[in-house]
């Protein structure tokens, strides 16, 4: 059995019509390449060629350029519908903070596309890159967070001891850092606590996972006349623990999505977290929603409902027994996993934390247009 992960909706659409039989135009064979980008040459404003491990890859106006936090087509000039970056600027334009080579040159890219047997050429439907997949897991041992997002000029997080790496957010629009989240994937507001609130204790350390690229140059302290050390310029930073003392929206119910995986002809699996309105110490805040509905008191109330459009038809998925999320620690947090059999997959889902089994009731919280990791079984 062969399983292929379609990395995005754009790739899925582009590859859906690939021809598997010989024609006068040859055979288009699906390909995927992951490796260092050594060159990019523009042909026109909307076409060019990149070189990845000696593979010459053609790109054109239909090619999507994607990072973990955005895409060329979605990052627009203010007040317009025009992309902020042309292809050349995206691939080898401004140098990312702390790197030596411009743009993505020297970084890792993942190319999805087709090889044509007649023309002997590769054409990309998608070019994905996070510059370099540098990942560190560990313990927060020092931090200064003076702004809500811990992104002020002197803000930083250090992990794994006094000589461990410093983490600073990526502010380049092509790969802008996502908000820091806690163990429930809920956005944090660091103005709710002391600047060093991220640092735990010997008995209760704060764990983390950070992903980005490790700088070539010394760039920390930021804006210092002579920076002293390199840094991990992150686009994702997550804590391992629930932090009710720091979440940005403690007074309202929230739901997050960890993963939506759909295997055509098999199963859809949706996983994530919820939290009830919560005090800084983790106890229930209670009260009512802005609409006057009673708030949940724990993360183990209500139910999870998922909707997805498949071939133009809206489908609804529930746990077979309408089971509520599983209360976690603190009990104002909850964990959910919904699994259902499925024939075909859509490209995105909406996830609702319902107050009960009656769908006419307003949900406590919702997260919309969550991308689906689509798999195919062949």
What does this protein structure show overall?
This protein has 378 residues and is mainly beta. It folds into 3 domains: 3-130, OB fold (Dihydrolipoamide Acetyltransferase, E2P) (Beta Barrel), CATH 2.40.50; 134-239; 254-377, Sandwich (Immunoglobulin-like). It contains 2 helices and 22 strands. The strands form 4 sheets. A 6-stranded mixed beta sheet has the order 1-22-14-15-19-18. Strands 2-3-4-8-7 form a 5-stranded mixed beta barrel. A 5-stranded mixed β-barrel has the order 9-10-11-13-12. Strand 2 and strand 3 form a beta hairpin. The termini are close together.
In summary, what is this structure?
The chain is mostly beta strands. Helices cover 4% and strands 42% of the residues.
Please specify the SSE layout and strand pairing:
Blueprint: E1 3-6, H1 9-16, E2 28-44, E3 47-52, E4 55-59, E5 64-67, E6 70-71, H2 87-92, E7 108-116, E8 121-131, E9 134-144, E10 156-159, E11 166-169, E12 207-214, E13 231-239, E14 254-264, E15 267-275, E16 303-310, E17 313-318, E18 326-327, E19 333-341, E20 348-354, E21 365-371, E22 373-377
Parallel strand pairs: 4-8, 5-8, 11-13, 14-22
Antiparallel strand pairs: 1-22, 2-3, 2-7, 3-4, 5-6, 7-8, 9-10, 9-12, 10-11, 12-13, 14-15, 15-19, 16-17, 16-20, 18-19, 20-21
